[in-house]
Amino acid sequence: MDELAYYLGMPAHGALAVVVSTVVLYSAITSLLSRAGQRLYASPSSLDLAVVTVLGAIVGRSILGQVPTLSGGLLALGTLFVVEGLAGRVRRSERMSRRRRHRAVAVMVAGHVQRHELHRLGLDESVLWSALRCAGVRGPHEVSLVVVEPDGRFSVLKVGETVHPAALTGVRHSGELLDQLAQSGDRAQ
Q1: Which residue ranges traverse the bilayer (predicted)?
Q2: Residue 69: is it exposed, middle or buried by C-beta count within 10 angstroms (0-12/13-18/19+)?
Q3: How far is 186 from 162, CA to CA, in rounded Å?
Q4: Mean pLDDT lowest among 15-24, 45-54, 92-101, 155-164
Q5: Can you tell me the distance from the alpha carbon of 71 to that of 149, in angstroms, rounded to the nearest whole number?
Q6: Is the pLDDT of residue 36 over 80?
């Protein structure tokens, strides 16, 4: 045990504490951000950015323990890379991809704002209209479909553009959306 402490620059129980706290806090933060992430990415306010910064500081300090050391920091970084690599494999697995397949959400269909979807995502119409302005939209009559992607970006499909069913892969209720677009006179292929 003393030999391990010599090579790590910390006692074995300290190294174990760094590894365990890194894994636990990584899990807690990724869980938190996966629940609130889409809203945070779509409309990051100054307060949201401050909260994420404070969370990062708390997590970093908590991982390193009472006396931060270089070896503890390197061990925490290594553990984070390993855990992120494992989490990436899990996310890519078929079971998880099926579960996450419908994370994109339509918030405007055929010029009509889907307020219940905006509300569910924790967004308001000002964020939607900001994205529409960025896409060059001047009014709701120009919009066929607006989708909030899993990473929080807005995808805007304008009236008159053909919407192939594959374009709605991963969007919640994609079949119903195609029907709504067809009924509204927008072209669905």
Answers
A1: 12-33, 45-64, 70-90
A2: middle
A3: 7
A4: 92-101
A5: 39
A6: no
Q: Which tokens go with 152? A: 């929080």
In order of 43, 103, 131, 133, the CA distances from 126 in angstroms are 10, 22, 9, 10
Assign 102 to helix, strand or coil.
coil
Residue bearing tokens 């401050």? 50
Residue-wise DSSP of 118-180: HHHHT--HHHHHHHHHHTT--SGGGEEEEEE-TTS-EEEEETTS-B-GGGGTTBTTHHHHHHH
Residues composing the chain: 189
Q: Is 3.90.1150.10 the CATH number for 105-184?
A: no
Q: Are 105 and 171 in contact (CB under 8 A)?
A: yes
Q: Domain ranges for the chain, please list them.
A: 2-100, 105-184
Which residues partner with 163 through β-bridges?
Answer: 188
pLDDT on residue 122:
83
CA 106, 108, 112, 117: dihedral to nearest 10 degrees? Answer: 60
Tokens describing residue 84: 């992120």
What lies within 8 Å, CB to CB, of 12 at 6+ separation is 1, 4, 5
